[in-house]
Amino acid sequence: MEKYMKTLKFNKQMKPLVLDGSKTQTRRLLDLPKTYKESDYGPCDDTLIQWSLASKPESYGENEYAFIDMAFPTDTYPTYAKTKYSVGDIFEVDGKQFEVIRSWIEQVQDISQEDAKAEGVISFVDQGRRWHRNYVTGGDFYGYGEYKDSFQSLWNSIYPGTWDKNIWVECIEFKSYRKA
After folding, report:
1. CB-based contacts of 85: which residues, under 8 Å, 6+ apart?
2. 72 within a domain of the structure (yes/no)
3. Model confidence pLDDT, tens digit, residues 71-97
């Protein structure tokens, strides 16, 4: 059975890292069902708003949710949010195919050091000290002690302001794919 090809795009900095295998994970803004800013029902903030069938039957049915600014209260896990990519999905980058081997949801600041390294942040060792790229400044190298610090600068260069909000993201781990 032929697998369905999905689209997963990478910027020009990340594409070569995907192709050479040094980037095996990516994080994306969580694809939420509805975005709701200021409403007829009052001001909105960066929290989850849920209306039951009884409270707003004309607009929202049971188990339907409205979301604000892609943010959730930090103690609320968005179990109702769905990942766009699933294990076994195939995507292509410059003619090379990759398979999703793991997909999960977490808050962006919960990334581990190992996962930050798998995100493909660039580093090197000089005189016994590890240096990581600062993507916010355009790629200068600084003596960040951790991969996570470099990933934070990469994230902020792509999605300014969202790191501090500690938004929920879809995490996708992948590997090179060869047809059987």
Report:
1. 6, 8, 91, 100, 103, 170, 172
2. no
3. 444 445 555 567 888 899 999 999 999
